[in-house]
Amino acid sequence: MASPVDQFKLKTLVPFEVGGVDLAYTTSSLWMTITVVAVTLFLTLSMRGGRLVPGRWQSLAELSYEFIANMIRENVGTEGRKYFPFIFTLFMFILMGNLLGMIPYSYTFTSQIVVTFAIAITIFLGVTVIGIVLHGFHFFTLFVPPGMPIVLAPLLIPIEIISYFVRPVSLSVRLFANMMAGHTMMKVFAGFTAALGVLGIAPILLLVALTGFEIMVAVLQAYVFTVLTCLYLNDAIHLH
Amino acid sequence: MNIRRVSSLSATAFLALVLLGHEATGASSSSGPKLPQLDLTTYSSQVFWLIVSFVVLYFLVAKLAMPRIAEVLEERQERIEDDLDKAETLKKEAYQVRIEYEKALSAAREKAQDATRHAQEEIAKRSAEAESAAQVKVTVMLEEAEKRIAASKTGAEGTSGDPISSLERSVAQEVVANAVQKLIGVDVTAADIDAAIAATLEERPQ
Q1: Confidence at residue A221, expressed as pLDDT on a 0 to 100 scale
Q2: Domain range holding A178?
Q3: Considering only alpha carbons, which residue of chain B is nearest residue A108?
Q4: Is residue A40 part of a domain?
Q5: Is the pLDDT of residue A188 over 80?
Q6: What percent of chain A has pLDDT over 90?
Q7: Which of B38, B39, B46 sits opposite A115 (nearest CB)?
Q8: ipTM reported for the complex surpasses 0.90
Q9: Contact assessment for residue A218 and residue A61, using Cβ atoms and an 8 Å cutoff
Q10: Residue A113 in contact with residue A173, Cβ under 8 Å?
Q11: Closest CA to A120 of A11, A13, A226
Q12: Is residue B29 part of a domain?
């Protein structure tokens, strides 16, 4: 029987190499492309009518837009307006990637630690650069908790610095681990179903519930990833 | 800050557990499958296609999708504000109209009260007039009736000096004539009866 983690293996669809670096178009790349197409179609086709009273699809598109707009307004403030397109793209990309991953035989690229870490480290570096550009040396007061007694400084400042640098790791691992764990668990239960024959009805029922749960996780993790990005951005812009 | 720190630490711990757990199972079956996510040879292509997809999506969303959504939302916002403004002016207008209506209503009410009062006064005046006219008429009629009664009284008493009226006399004459005829079969003349009456009247104590 195939291992439950075999589903994360990548198949090379179009071999491609530049200067000895493997840039093959794989299943992961394919589903990234599908995500790009799906998000674009979703956001443009639904708004084609642009009706004053929106239909179902238009409502969904507007809802996503306003959801992120509100998230930025609440967590970052008006200065966050500039980063709206990036954060909206980020949210839609992760959300659509997670949701498309729920389709049987598809590939969930967010279950790849390298993908989530690449996004997270980009955000981390970007946010740090924004903070230093906005505040200069003053940015490093971010590591000094407000109202800290000076005696505790040797203890608290290292903790703050470590927690700051752990951010890209925690951000990427949270998404990756959730996606991987969910899909692995579903594969395990599917394996039980195949092995148990008639009695397999029990794991199937569980699998149905699990599928619903995983869809919730897919949406929730996209939200968590985005909201944390907003919080990091807020720290960089407003320090404390 | 604390919650975030705890969540980041727990996520790190989770990763450690997943990887360690995997290593443990991998160790138990030495030729067991490796976690495909840790296959470093796939990293370059994944990061490359991630960057390509994300950048393409960023431009599609930022330049194509978002302006359209913003436009529609703005249009709706404007429309709503417009409608609210319109509603506000209409409300003011309605308030004005209501005040005018109330003014007109109170004026009409006053007018109606006036009219009612006038009508009542008119009615009182007229009924008083009618009453006094009727009073006069009744008095006149009463007087006339009294006169008539008095007249008929004197008429019934007949000419002065005659102790009985001419009516009494004629009735007596007839009754006597009939009675005599029935009793004794004799016809008596009026003159005889007159004589008899006269005699009776003389005998009767006055």
Answers
A1: 96
A2: 6-238
A3: B37
A4: yes
A5: yes
A6: 71
A7: B46
A8: yes
A9: no
A10: yes
A11: A226
A12: no
Interface test with A, best of B34, B50, B60, B83 (most A CBs within 10 A): B50
Evaluate whether residue B110 is within a structural domain.
Answer: yes
A119 contacts in B (CB within 8 Å)? Answer: 50, 54
Q: Which residue of A has its CA nearest to B12?
A: A170
Please provide the DSSP assignment of B106-155 as one string.
Answer: HHHHHHHHHHHHHHHHHHHHHHHHHHHHHHHHHHHHHHHHHHHHHHHHHH
Query: Which residues fall within 8 angstroms of residue A54, CB to CB, at 6 or more apart?
Result: A62, B72
Least CB-CB distance to A36: which of B22, B33, B53?
Answer: B53
Q: Average pLDDT, stretch B57-86?
A: 93
Half-sphere exposure of A82 (CA within 13 A, CB side): 6
Nearest chain A CA: its distance from B84 CA (Å): 15
Disruptive mutation site among B1, B3, B9, B15 for chain A (greatest number of A CBs within 10 Å): B15
Q: Tell me, what's the pLDDT at B156?
A: 62
Average pLDDT over residues B152-181: 72
- In a domain, residue A211? The reply is yes
| A210-219 residue pLDDT tens | 999 999 999 9
Q: Is residue A66 part of a domain?
A: yes
In which domain, by residue range, is B96 found? 44-156
Classify A12 as helix, strand or coil. Answer: strand
Q: Are residues B51 and B124 in the same domain?
A: yes
Per the domain annotation, does B21 fall within a domain?
Answer: no
Are residues B79 and B178 located together in one domain of the fold?
A: no
Shared-domain flag, residues B142 and B191: no
Give domain status of residue B23, yes or no: no
Number of folded domains that form chain B? 2
Check CB contact of A169 with chain B, cutoff 8 Å.
Answer: yes
pLDDT at A229 over 60: yes
pLDDT band at B158 (very low <50, low <70, confident <90, very high): low
Do B113 and B49 share a structural domain? yes
A70 touches chain B (CB under 8 A): no
pLDDT of residue B24: 46
Are residues B122 and B183 part of one domain?
no
Closest residue by Cα to residue A222 from A99, A57, A124, A44:
A99
Q: What is the pLDDT of residue B15?
A: 52
Asked if the structure places residue A1 within a domain, the reply is: no
Contact A3 B1 (CB under 8 A): no
Residue pair A131/A235 in contact by the 8 Å Cβ criterion: yes
**What's the structural domain count of chain A?**
1
Angstrom distance (rounded) from CA B14 to CA B20: 10
Q: Residues A10-36: pLDDT tens digits?
A: 999 999 888 888 999 999 999 999 999
Residue B150 and residue B110 share a domain: yes
The pLDDT value given to residue A95 = 97
Q: How confident is the model at residue B101 (pLDDT cuts 50, 70, 90)?
A: very high
Separation in Å, CA of B69 to nearest CA in chain A: 7
